[in-house]
Amino acid sequence: MWPLGHVAVAYLCYTIATRARFDAPPAHIPALLLVFGSQFPDLVDKPLAWYLGVIPTGRTLAHSLLLLVPLSVAVLAISSHYDRGEYGIAFTIGALSHALVDALPALWGPNESATHLLWPVVPVEEYEQGPPTILALLQDSLGQPFFLAEFVLAAIAFVLWRRDGYPGLEPVWTALGRVWPTPG
């Protein structure tokens, strides 16, 4: 799945959970941590595999539940210790949803695998000819229904994000205003 799809799935999960628990939309900072969590596995694994070559593929270390579960427990414990439990919940939903959604194609594709969820206990298939390029990944994705579904999920997530009052946007605008003050 591409970054947009990961953010969409994470936001859908988180806004539903937040509404169910608090009958309120997500707050700003947890929404930002959710976005970071939804990208975390790729932010770790892609550089380590594609550029440094220290792990076998772009879906291994930070996509593995053997890392994500203990990391999530630690993040939840630390955030709770500082009375910011919702921060940990948001990051955890983002990170775990990423790894699980990346495993979904294994349910319907004979050439797909979810072995990354238990790497390094279960080996993953390494790249045959080196890491893929972004363009090659995009070309491979274009005809797949899963790729097209990402845009539907993103549209639904955007509608809910708008309904929720665009959580996370205010701190970003504030930070950008400090970097690029308006003239006058």
From TrEMBL:
Keywords of the record: Hydrolase, Membrane, Transmembrane, Transmembrane helix
Segments passing through the bilayer: 61-80, 87-108, 142-161
InterPro entries reported in the protein's UniProt record: YdjM-like (IPR007404)
Domain of life according to the entry: Archaea
Heme as UniProt keyword: no
GO MF annotations in UniProt: hydrolase activity
UniProt keyword annotation of Transmembrane helix present: yes
Name of the protein: Membrane-bound metal-dependent hydrolase
Organism whose genome encodes this protein: Natronorubrum bangense JCM 10635
